[in-house]
């Protein structure tokens, strides 16, 4: 898929409703979906959660997970996606947490997770991707990456 429009069409054709749980992209994923006419058929809600407290309060991310793996980790992204799925009327949730700008090896590292409710079962997949560029270039690239990966995430979760 090459565009957000194609992703929205994919969601419609598979009768998917998506919720977003965003940290480093600060709502960019939700905004990009919202730019597409007819997105209301597939977009249920979006969460922007930066702090550990927000991740816990809004999505139920465990403080133990945050302490053990770090705020920007795949286990946290997985719990964010599952929390968005459980706290919404959606059957799919996409989440990210990462570091858009830092003076360390974590600069540009973003963790993604996608959760899917299928036949009453919750499934989740996750990955970590490194992006190059300025803070806003990383955030933009991460938001587009998350959206364009939705069909692949869906396919891998349906097959698992």
Could you characterize the architecture of this molecule?
The model has no long low-confidence stretch (mean pLDDT 94). It is built from six helices and five strands. The two termini are 21 Å apart. 44% of the residues lie in helices and 24% in strands. It has a single domain, classed as Alpha-Beta Complex (Maf protein), CATH 3.90.950.20. Helix 1 packs parallel to helix 6 and helix 2 packs across helix 6. A five-stranded mixed sheet has the order 2-1-3-4-5, sandwiched between helices. It is of the alpha/beta class and 160 residues long. InterPro entries: CinA-like_C, CinA_C. This is CinA C-terminal domain-containing protein. It holds the Pfam family CinA.
Q: What would you say the CATH architecture is?
A: Alpha-Beta Complex
Q: CATH topology, what is it called?
A: Maf protein
3D shape: globular
Number of domains as seen in the coordinates: 1
Low-confidence stretches: none
Average pLDDT, rounded to a whole number, is 94
Number of strands: 5
**CATH class bucket:** Alpha Beta
| N-to-C order of helices and strands | HEHEHHHEEEH
N→C terminal distance: 21 Å
**Overall radius of gyration:** 14 Å
Question: Can you summarize the main beta sheet?
Answer: 5 strands, mixed
CATH 4th-level superfamily: CinA-like
What is the helix fraction of residues, given as a range? Answer: 40-55%
Query: Structural class per helix/strand content?
Result: alpha/beta
Number of helices: 6
Strand content: 15-25%
Protein name: CinA C-terminal domain-containing protein
Organism: marine sediment metagenome
Pfam family, one: CinA
Domain CinA C-terminal: 5-151
């Amino acid at each position: 898929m090459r565009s957000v429009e194609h992703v929205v069409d994919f969601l419609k054709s598979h009768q998917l409703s998506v919720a977003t749980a965003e940290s480093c992209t600060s709502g960019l994923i939700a905004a990009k979906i919202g730019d597409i006419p007819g997105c209301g058929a597939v977009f249920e809600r979006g969460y922007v959660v930066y702090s550990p407290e927000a991740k816990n309060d809004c999505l139920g991310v465990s403080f133990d997970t945050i302490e053990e793996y770090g705020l920007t980790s795949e286990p946290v992204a997985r719990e964010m996606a599952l929390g968005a799925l459980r706290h919404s009327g959606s059957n799919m949730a996409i989440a990210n947490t990462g570091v858009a700008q830092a003076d360390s090896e974590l600069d540009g590292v973003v963790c993604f997770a996608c959760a899917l409710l299928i036949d009453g079962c919750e499934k989740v997949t996750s990955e970590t991707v490194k992006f190059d560029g300025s803070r806003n270039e990383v955030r933009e690239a991460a938001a587009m990456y998350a959206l364009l990966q939705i069909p692949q995430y869906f396919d891998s979760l349906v097959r698992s």
